[in-house]
Amino acid sequence: TKRLQGSAAQALSKQSQVLGLTNPRFFRASQALGNKFTVFVDGNPIEVDPSYTIYQACTEAGVEIPRFCYHERLSVAGNCRMCLVEVEGAPKPIASCATQVMPNQKISTKSETTRIARGGVMEFLLANHPLDCPICDQGGECDLQDIAQVYGYGEGRYMEYKRAVEDKNISPIIKTSMTRCIHCARCIRFTEQIGGEFSLGQVGRGKINEISTYVESMITHELSGNVVDLCPVGALNNLPYSFQARPWELKSNYSVDIMDGLGSNIDVHTRGSDLLRVLPRINEEVNEEWISDKSRHSFDGLKKQRLSVPLLRKQDGSFYDLTWEEAIQLAATKLSEAKGAQIHGKIGQFNDIETLVAYRDLMHRLGTENLDVRTNAPYLNSDFRSQYLMNSRVTGIDETD
């Protein structure tokens, strides 16, 4: 037992190394271990790296472990306890996300002890969770729903009043339903470690514990929308998308974002001809699995806020609607009033030939030869990949000195 306690302490101290947030002392110790060793997952031997956690070893073995708080790109929290597994020699089930593997360790993910432990954790999570599934925007893509179906019990034993939490106004693009929160703290860790802000945190202890912004402030960093994707329940939702559609009604369309200089990979969700939301698509070389708020919500300006009818400005600066016939007639009148020498036309070189010819004919009909079409734009040689990649990948920034 003492040897096991010592091993657990050593594993917990090295969890930062697993995340890449390494303390040099632990990093050297891991490097000194050198070769891989064998662990047994449900009786099957597998070679793993010494720096692996039990969760990573199980994933390597193709075994699915339920989790809520753990995320591959965030630090280990060990809050939810849903990833409990049975380890031979341990006095009780162990949180696999926060425990490092040991040589010849025998891990059981399907034992009766593991099943009972996970069922108990799920029962505690559901004790205060409201039955909002029919009206929750997370329905159909909710981790709590899916895991409860597999590991939960058919009925609850908790007969007291459920805990309720006041909703927070933390962002104009994030809708909160904090009564649904299971305190996985993914949003807190993302905001601190990826967003670079310390605006979110946990206040209170025990049954009064809440996720809050401390002084009722707002989240202001440009990646805030990603906490909606990270939230495993319906506590944080996409406000503009709220009550728009269910996931099974949407069609996925892979695309590339043009709102940033990275070319982030995105997944555009549509229903019929309507574009309803934009989600990140995983690309380790470019955007990992994050996108900016501008990338996520800019389509709204091209859909709901675009001009659908011609407008004419009044003397006081306000606008009123015109019909298309009135607008075309007014534009033709204004053009005919201008003298040819006063008109100067510009058109970009990337337009098609038909558009260029039509534009030239229009300028000639208006009596002007002042037409600017520049075809001698700076030439970017693309013979070698390095000439348009600036000699480095995005991921190479982490490796620079």
Would you kindly provide a written description of the structure presented here, covering whatever features stand out?
The chain is of the alpha+beta class. The chain folds into five domains: 2-124, Ubiquitin-like (UB roll), CATH 3.10.20; 130-143 and 153-238, 2-Layer Sandwich (Alpha-Beta Plaits), CATH 3.30.70.20; 251-303, Single Sheet (N-terminal domain of TfIIb), CATH 2.20.25; 307-334, no CATH class; 338-401, no CATH class. 28% of the residues lie in helices and 15% in strands. It is built from 13 helices and 16 strands. It has helices at 2-13, 15-18, 24-33, 54-60, 112-127, 143-151, 186-193, 226-230, 293-297, 299-303, 324-337, 353-365, 386-389, and strands at residues 37-41, 44-48, 84-87, 94-95, 106-108, 174-176, 201-203, 210-212, 236-238, 251-256, 265-271, 274-280, 311-313, 319-321, 345-346, 371-372. The strands form six sheets. A five-stranded mixed β-sheet has the order 2-1-5-3-4, with helices on both faces. Strands 10-11-12 form a three-stranded antiparallel β-sheet. The protein has a two-stranded antiparallel sheet with strand order 6-9. Helix 12 links the parallel strand 15 (345-346) and strand 16 (371-372). The longest helix has 16 residues, at 112-127. The chain is elongated. The model is unreliable at 1-33 (pLDDT under 50).
Strand ordering within the main sheet: 2-1-5-3-4
**At CATH's second level, what is the architecture of the largest domain?**
Roll
Number of domain units: 5
- Coarse shape: elongated
Number of helices: 13
Helix-and-strand structural type: alpha+beta
Radius of gyration: 29 Å
Residue stretches low in confidence (pLDDT < 50, at least 5 long) are 1-33
The overall strand count is 16
Estimate the helix proportion, in percent. Answer: 25-40%
Mean pLDDT: 84
Largest sheet: 5 strands, mixed
CATH topology of the largest domain: Ubiquitin-like (UB roll)
Oligomer: single chain
How would you spell out the order of helices and strands?
Answer: HHHEEHEEEHHEHEEHEEEEHHEEHEHEH
Q: Look at the structure and give the CATH class of the largest domain.
A: Alpha Beta
Strand content: 15-25%
How far is it from the N-terminal to the C-terminal residue, by CA? Answer: 45 Å
